[in-house]
Amino acid sequence: MSRTAVRLIPVAVVTAAAMTVAPAATAAASTPAATTATATPAASDPFYTYDGSEPLSSFAPGAVLKTRTLQYHLVGIPTPLKAIQLLHRSTDAQGRPAANVTTVVRSLTGDGSKAVSYQSFYDSLTPEDGPSRAIAGNLTLGGVIPNVEAVFMAPLLAKGYTLVIPDTQGQRAAFAAGPEYGTNTLDSIRAATRSAETGLSDNTRFGLMGYSGGAIATNWAAALAPSYAPDVNRKLVGFAEGGLLVTPAHNLKYVDGSLSWSGVIPMAIIGVSRSFDIDVKPYLNSYGLKVYAELEKGSIIDALGHYPGLTWKKMAKPGYENINSVPDLVTAVNRINLGSAATPTVPGFIAQGDGGVLEGTFSNHRGIGTGDGVMVAGDVRALARQYCATGNSAITYRQYELLSHVGVPVVWAPLAMDWLDDRFAGRTAPSDCGRIPAGNSLAPEEPTPLS
Question: Is residue 135 within 8 Å of 102, Cβ to Cβ?
């Protein structure tokens, strides 16, 4: 960690403390009544619904549809920090117009010239667990994760960065649908710079940062920006991420039978099928349908460690024991394979663990190998090498052999912040191209005949 980061630790601690323990009376007094919103039960909050007279398709992606200002909440407790929330137009995984929400938190020491789009790893199949809901004061079990992430966000605020925090999974909670994560992130940045309340403008520079589910959004945003949002791409200084999902088909096989992470299998299948309007129930046996029902509105907290030893085969009807025998799913997972997406044009810092045995994932399948317990290290190496080979030499790659998915953020976060600081300062991005070990094939999956 740099000396600057060390000096900012006390400031970050004070910021985090203020975010955590500020009395409600102080919070209420700090925001003008005309623009203040109070917490509403998530399911009935009208802010999330676009109810305008013009069709949503008539608005450009990133257009601001509604605005509200409220107090930033941690575990349901209001703090003195203001949060500006924007309902904006975005695009779902199938290219259809969608409305989504982002939250902007202004730094008390910044001037709006630099911002970090922080993508949360809230990983859930219910929209009520999204970061905007937690920030508004709604407290759910799955929503605990966005509250915990204040430990990553407080130092950024202390450094003077404005934070933009998108609900990356959208209002259908499209878990694992990477392209939708990316468009939601990019349109969140557009909306943030178009709202007078945020203090951001077309001249604001942005960094992208996220771990795990947040890394999915971060990388897809960086990959899609040149084509989907060139206006945003021009503002980006770089992307910093860790614990990345690259080839979902590999991950499903890697965690098959894991002691901790096997519950991700049904979560991912539900999320991907929801995103692409696929009905997977005809392929599930009675036990598979039971698990589906249990997790249909669940979060990663409901899945992690709750289904030790679970495999796709245990959930599938006879004839569909190989997941590649479900053609629609094969098509869908290929659409969310980062190996088939474009190469980002901005510098990247990518970190990945390889100590998955610490979290009960012992598999080492040919062509997949090992990982951090849920993410496949060989896939991440292959993606980093692919970026180097296709024109982006400003790629930094770090692999932590003895750290698992839960352990890597402790090392990754301060390094990612320092790396972003250097990009905002205009320093030349370092490169690990030519030194990254070989990885896996990122080729699309092929359907297999019924077994």
Answer: no
Residues 6 or more apart whose CB falls under 8 angstroms from that of 241 comprise 208, 209, 210, 211, 214, 215, 218, 219, 348, 349, 350, 351, 416
* Cα dihedral value 340, 275, 279, 264, nearest 10: 80
Instruction: Look up the pTM and report it.
Output: 0.91
Taken in order 206, 207, 213, 216, the sign of the CA dihedral is positive
pLDDT in tens, 151-206: 999 999 999 999 999 999 999 999 999 999 999 999 999 999 999 999 999 999 99
CA pseudo-torsion sign 51, 54, 55, 57: negative
Q: Which two tokens stand for residue 182?
A: 């990316």
Strand order in the sheet with 395-400: 64-74, 77-91, 97-105, 162-166, 114-119, 205-211, 236-242, 348-353, 395-400
Amino acid of residue 76: G
Give, in order, the Cα–Cα distances in Å from 187 to each of 30, 166, 261, 316, 381.
Answer: 29, 9, 31, 38, 28
* Amino acid letter, 2: S
Where is 149: in which H helix or E strand?
A: none
199: left (phi over 0), alpha (psi -120 to 50) or beta: left
Helix 3-21, helix 150-158: angle, nearest 10: 120
Q: How far apart are CA 117 and CA 364, in angstroms?
A: 35
Measured between alpha carbons, how far is 380 from 382 in angstroms, rounded to an integer? 5
In the structure encoding, which two tokens stand for residue 171, read together?
A: 């209002």
Would you say residue 434 has pLDDT above 80? Answer: yes
Characterize the bridge pairing of strands 162-166 and 97-105: antiparallel
Retrieve residue 234's tokens. Answer: 């021009």
